[in-house]
Amino acid sequence: MSVALLGAVGGLTAVGLYLMTGRPLSRIVLGYALLGHAAVVALLIAGGRAGRPPIAGRAVPEAMANPLPQAIALTAIVISFGLTLFLLSLARRQQALSGDDLVEDDLEDRRIAARQGEPDEPPGPSAP
User: Fold this and answer.
1) The domain spanning residue 101 has which CATH number?
2) Most buried residue, 1, 12, 15, 80, by CB count within 10 Å?
3) pLDDT tens, position by position, 73-107
């Protein structure tokens, strides 16, 4: 297992999470795509060393590559691609409707932010 690949997974995950915390939808979509790539690389690392023969042939089972991580990685690629396209279409629709791609605060967030300035206890009659 290569330390460089582990660093790549960590770097892709860190940059993906950083991009997903921003307000623009374009950054959120890019962050999601990077997280998908990090997951695929992590699955390929879990599959073991490269260069071993696949299941086909008459090799001993210990010398064969494990096909399960490869199949899961292929599934993750397809799901990540589909969700990235869906998120891109949502971002494009938001940009067409509002003229920008910023994620706005919802009403509940505004209510919570307004409550932050209020005292914890409701004002009542003061005791002498």
Assistant:
1) 1.10.287.3510
2) 12
3) 899 999 999 999 999 999 899 889 888 888 777 78
Domains contained in the chain, number: 1
- Residue 47, pLDDT score: 77
CA angle 1, 4, 59 (to 5 degrees): 30
Rounded to two decimals, the pTM is 0.71
pLDDT of 34 > 80? The answer is: yes
Domain that holds residue 32: 3-51+64-113
Residue 14 domain-assigned (yes or no): yes
Q: Alpha-carbon distance 54 to 61, whole Å?
A: 10
CA neighbours within 13 Å on the CB side: how many for 40? 16
Among the listed residues 34, 39, 29, the one whose alpha carbon sits nearest the alpha carbon of residue 86: 29
